Automatic annotation (TrEMBL):
Cofactor needs: Zn(2+)
Superkingdom: Bacteria
Keyword Manganese on entry: no
GO molecular function, one term: hydrolase activity, acting on ester bonds
GO cellular component terms given for this protein: cytosol
Name this protein carries in UniProt: Succinylglutamate desuccinylase/aspartoacylase family protein
Amino acid sequence: MDEVFPVRVPVPDLRDVAAGNAGIPGVWHLDSGRPGPRVVIVSLMHGNEFQGASVLARWLRAGLRPARGALTLVFANLDAFSRFDPADPTLSRYVDEDLNRVWSPALLDGGRDSLEMRRARALRPVVEAAEVLLDLHSMLWPSDPVMIVGRDPAALALARAAGAPPPIVVDGMRPEGPRLIDHAPFAVPGTGRLALLVEAGQHWEPETEMVAEACASGLLRALGMLPPAAPVGSEARGEVWTEVWPEVWTVSGCVVAASRGFCFTRPFRGGAVIPRAGTLIARDGEAEIRTPHDDCMLVMPSPRVMRGHVAVRLARRAPPGRGVQVTPG
Ligand SMILES: [Zn+2]
């Protein structure tokens, strides 16, 4: 790849958190001893997205304890992270395969073997015990932060209650393979199991870690696991987001590159909103890709997309002050 992706933040030293305290490497179980929700926060699902891990490691070193319930912190792909090289930072996303595309009973119970499949099987009881799960990610290409939830309205309500700044995108589509937030316990509305994923910003930018931390601490606060006034991390440094009512968008379509010639008409930033329906945004071989409706958000456009992979998700604004329209997806 021709692009240079500068690493503008320190690469964390995670050796002191790698063992964990729960019998599974990289898994930390913090139990308040009081009734309350079982929450799991996952970092390093992708080995080169380490800013969520920087937040969790800092919390562990500061002696964070939930005020109620139990909190489990996960450093998911330490093997891939250990290969991180700032000179070539995109290579360490995974070792054998993408750890965030294997989360279905069929794959986890099946016979496929890889470093990531073994890790997913080891983490499976941890994530399946979660009543609430937050998966911390960041993005390669320039993009505004975004919180992604599945189609359970309760997950959307929780994302709103967390009060973090990114817009919320309701997304039940998974053409690339099942993500952790799509895993069976979380994907079925009404089970009482909720999963959120935050894309906290661009990889290796300082703001990304602040957004990841705001989302994680906002979630714990919304669940009564952190006292409302307790400053955590960046908030202790005076950077507090309050009274945020994030916008809600619903994924309306998923553009998969059908040819090797897929090309956006210009370098769109993730989160850009195209006002007019029918605007040409990309060419895919002979085909023209146009926005299907007015006010179309481009969610995580990927300029260097391989054939068969998702080039961009499209999203439609949900009516303000009301729930989103939830349709089977
Ligand atoms: Zn990721």
